[in-house]
Amino acid sequence: MKRRKVIQSLSTLPLFGALPLAEAGAKSVSKKRKRDVIAELGIRSFINAAGTLTYMSGCIMHDEVVETIDNTSKHFCMIDEVQDKVGEKIAKLVHSEAAMVTCGAFSAMTLGLAGVLTGLDVRKAEQLPHLTGTDMKSEVICQKCHNERYNHAFLNTGCTVVEVETIEDVEKAISEKTALLHFLNITAHAGQIKYEEWVALGKKHHIPTSIDIAADVPPVSNLWKFNEMGFDMVFISGGKAMRGPQSAGILMGRKDIVAAARLNAPPRGFTVARGHKVNKEEILGMYVALEKFISGDHDREWTEWEAQIARIEGAVKGLPGITTSVTVPELGNITPTLTISWDDSIVKVTGRELRDKLRFGNPSIEAGFSGLPLYYYQAGSDSIDPAIEGTLNGASLIRVTAWMLQPGEDKIVARRIREEILGATAG
Fold first, then answer.
1. With 253 labelled, which of 2, 116, 166, 420 sits at a CA distance of 20 to 30 A?
2. Sign of torsion, CA 293 295 297 302?
3. What span, in angstroms and rounded, lies between the C-alpha atoms of 264 and 157?
4. 247/7 Cα distance (integer angstroms)
5. Residues 6+ apart with CB under 8 A from 15
6. pTM over 0.90
7. Which ranges of 273-359 does DSSP label H, i.e. alpha helix?
8. H or E element in which residue 13 lies
9. Could you tell me the CA-to-CA distances from 374 to 129, 331, 338 in Å, in that order?
10. What is the set of domains in the chain, with CATH numbers?
């Protein structure tokens, strides 16, 4: 080899020898500089002082849940096996015969009813939602005050909803078409028929009973209370207080119904619920979230919520025209809730205007809708009846919860609300 070529060859060695180090350095930098897609796209993120509403993206998942999702995303698994193993574990945790992870509580409702209608008959599963000309049942009975918008989940199966108000009404409404007796926990006190009476009616007529507790933990005991009470199916969201994936929920209940619901669920592609797909990461993440929630220190958590609410209340209590109250709803999301109201002749702002000032301020804060009844708001309503929207917008109050606040955010919420109220105070 000529001298020039040897020198050229040698001159390239430092370049190639340094390449692995350069790559390692670049990888190290890339790990430190995580891509912020939310900022990149200009999406507004905010402090959540309102609650676990779906249109606000529900909750922030626990670190353990995120780690589970990340770790399991690197493996292939059979979906049915994942559901088998996770369902068995969940059933033990919630004291039910069986369970499965669904695509939210709404999905659990559709799948549960589909299971009741079809049993393990594949041909019937293929026919839904077309019930005409079949021997499948076609009606769901519920109390009038329990027939709210989320019952559309039942309509997806082809069934209709029959409203009743008294036990006598139920007895008259039951027929060979009756597939299910459904109960809504958040409006339980509004109905004439109570939990145990509803379950007893189902057992008397050999008709399955179900209950929607979508957003109704805490308390943690609700996870098994209604199974032990005798309801055949319980529907719950996973992306609220349990801080699991927002797109996950749980169907728990009778073993035969859950097995039939599984027949109507993905990965099978011939069913009414094919679009209710929940991936392995969400199934396993939901299990970890449930496990963590049940084992949590709920007394300590409650004490922290009370302290955060007290700090926010203390920032505005005593200001001219301001009235505050802290309440705990009897049903639904049972958490300390602060209502701040004011004399609009002193504080020149409506509830909607104050909420918007918080929303579009820096940092952005979401507070509870002004004037909206607490049970309705915490049920997770994404829209408001236009007939009452004007009244609500003009109401002189906002509501604040602490259970979705991250550490230290209560101080920010307290400061910002005080600033806006003082800025709107006359004279």
1. 166
2. positive
3. 11
4. 63
5. none
6. no
7. 280-295, 298-316, 351-359
8. helix 3-32
9. 35, 10, 11
10. 77-295 (3.40.640.10), 298-424 (3.90.1150.10)
What b-and-e string marks burial along 379-405, b requiring 16 or more CB atoms within 10 Å of the CB?
Answer: bbbeeeeeeeeeebbebbbbbbbbbbb
Assigned token pair, 277: 């797909």
Q: pLDDT tens per residue, the chain (427 residues)? A: 444 444 444 444 444 344 454 555 555 555 578 899 999 999 999 999 999 988 899 999 999 999 999 999 999 999 999 999 999 999 999 999 999 999 999 999 999 999 999 999 999 999 999 999 999 999 999 999 999 999 999 999 999 999 999 999 999 999 999 999 999 999 999 999 999 999 999 999 999 999 999 999 999 999 999 999 999 999 999 999 999 999 999 999 999 999 999 999 999 999 999 999 999 999 999 999 999 999 999 999 999 999 999 999 999 999 999 999 999 988 877 899 999 999 999 999 999 999 999 999 999 999 987 444 433 433 334 444 444 444 455 578 999 999 999 999 999 999 999 999 999 997 6
Q: Give the position of tokens 């952005």.
A: 364
Residue with tokens 């200001």: 319
Query: Do 264 and 276 meet the contact criterion of CB atoms below 8 Å apart?
Result: no
Residue type, 160: T
